[in-house]
Model the fold of this input.
Amino acid sequence: MEISINSLQERDAEELYQFEKNNRQFFEQMVPSRGEDYYNFETFKIRHGELLVEQQENKSKFYLIRDNSGSIIGRINLVDIDITNEIAEVGYRVGQEYGGKGIGARALKLLLETEISVKKIKAKTTTNNIASQRILEKNGFKQVYIDENAFKMNGQKLQFIDYLLEL
Done:
């Protein structure tokens, strides 16, 4: 399957909301919930608008991962862009039905091939998210730190793992 990454646009709000809502349970198995309000469409539209402003101000870059038919199958973001220190943080999520197909790794590769104004990219995942760890490592990220502070999520004791890519 061919994929593309496209900058987040105002017109994407409703389709992105449906994607997030449809994959909520799946995502919340691996990452902390975004909270109940996030899944109220009116609140979602406000948050969507805030992301567009952040993108316009070059503080972050938000992309949708789309398949050949143009449907959203994931998202990938470069956030907290610090031009002075030339560092940013990457985050991504791929819909449940597209997991295990290399979509996340290919989307991250596409992101790294775009015009990136930083020399270092940080990433963070949880100890139970093996797929995310593989995506990062496949794209050259190195594990730099495992947070000693464990937390409980979905009945599991987890820790955050920090990664870094130096370009």
Observations:
- Residues 120 and 128 are 25 Å apart (CA to CA).
- The chain is about 30% helix and 30% strand.
